[in-house]
Amino acid sequence: MAWNEPPGGNNDQDPWGNRDRNKKNDGPPELDDIIKDLSKKLNSWFGGGNNKGNGSGNDNSNGGGVGPLIAVVVIALLVFTGFNSVYTVDESERAVVLRLGEFSRVETPGLQFKIPYVDQIAGKVNVTQIREHSLQNSMLTADENIVTVSMTVEYLAADAKKFALNVRDPESTMAHAAESALRHVVGSARLEQILTTGRDQVQALVKERLQNYLDGYDVGVTLAQLKITDASPPSAVQDAFDDVIKAREDQQRLVNEAQAYANGIIPVAQGQAARQIAEAEAYRQEVVARAKGEANRFSALYTEYSKAPEITRQRLYLDTIESIYSTSSKVLVDVEGGNNMMYLPLDQLLKGQTGSAASSLTGGASSSLNNMSQSDVSNLTDQILREINRRNNQ
Predict the structure, then answer these.
(1) Fewest CB atoms within 10 A around its CB: which of 24, 129, 305, 388?
(2) pLDDT, tens digit, for every residue of 233-281?
(3) CATH class (in words) of the domain with range 131-233
(4) Tens of pLDDT along 122-139?
(5) Is the sign of the CA dihedral 51, 52, 55, 56 positive or negative?
(6) Residue 156: how many CB atoms within 10 A of its CB?
(7) How many CB atoms lie within 10 A of CB 159?
(8) Residues 89 and 126 sit within 8 Å (Cβ to Cβ)
(9) Cβ proximity of 219 and 173 under 8 Å
(10) Alpha-carbon span 88 to 110, nearest angstrom
C-alpha cells in the first residue's frame, strides 16, 4: 500500500511505521518518542531494563525515570568537557596555565588544549599593552617646603608568569611603589630644583628607583616611560615663587646679553693685541737689522780708517756736515781775515725773488741751487757779495 493511501485493515501501516489505526498520524515521530527510545537504550545499558519483568508492563517505572536523567547528565558532562578542553590565546596575550594548582607553562597565541579538571588558566596577560598610572600628591622637600607633584607612569607586563602569580594585585602594587619612589626622591631634593632646572634629574631618579622597587617585588613589570607632568608650590606662596622665577629668568637674560657682548668685544681686543704684537715684532726686527747694518758699516769704516785715517776722518766730517745742512735754509760764511762768522738768511733774502726761486730754496732737502735759474743765481750772488763788502767796511 502506498504511503499516501488512507489506512485500512489490520495490516495498514503509514510511512512512519505507526501500526495503531486508532491513533491519528500527521507526521514524523515526536521529540518525546526519540527521547524515550534513547532512554530505553541507556536504561538497558545502566541496568534499567530489569524492570521489564516485574509484570507491571508500565514503561514509567522507577528504573525508567532514572535512566533519562543519567543520560542527560552524561551528555552534559561530555559537552562541557569538550568545550573546556579547548581555548584560544590572542596575539597580544600570554596564558598562564596551572596543573593541579602548580605552575605548568605559559602558552603562546593560538588555539591551545588543556586537560579538563586538571589544568587551569590562571590568567591571560596582555604583554604588549601600555598600561598607565597617574598620581598627584603634596610632598615635603629637603628644604622643608611643600610641593604638589603630578606624575604619569607607563609600563608593560613583560613577564606574564610573574605578573599573574607573584603578586595578588599588580596594579595596586605599582601605584604604591610609584608613590613611594616619588616621595623618596622629592624628599631628598630642594624645592627650587624640583620647580626649575632640576626636574629632569628628579624624573630620572624616580624612574630608576621605581624600577628597582618593581624588580625587588619580582612583579614582572618593565617601565616604558615616567614623566613628572607638573610641579607647583602651595597656592599661598605661588606669587612669591613666580617672582623668584621671573628674577631668575631676568638673570639668565642678562647673563646671555653679557656673554654676547663679550663675544663681540673679545675678538676685537684679541685682534688689536695681535696687531700690536706684530708691529712690535716688526719694530724689533727693524731695530735689530739697523743695528746690525750700523755695526757692519762701522766695521767697514774702521777698516778704511785704519788704512787712511786723515782722509777717512775728513770724509766723515764732510758727510756729517752735508747731512746736517742739506735741509737748512740758512748759510754761515767764514770769511778769511774776519773776526766773526757771517750768517746769510737765504729765506729772508729770497723774499723779493720770484716764487719759484724762493720755493726752490726753502723746499727742504730736495731743494738746491741747481734748481734755480741763472738770473736768480746771479742776483743771489750779487746780494751776498754786497753783504760781505758791507760787513768788511764796518
Answers:
(1) 24
(2) 877 777 777 787 788 889 989 999 999 998 889 899 999 999 999 999 9
(3) alpha beta
(4) 889 999 999 999 999 889
(5) positive
(6) 17
(7) 19
(8) no
(9) yes
(10) 6
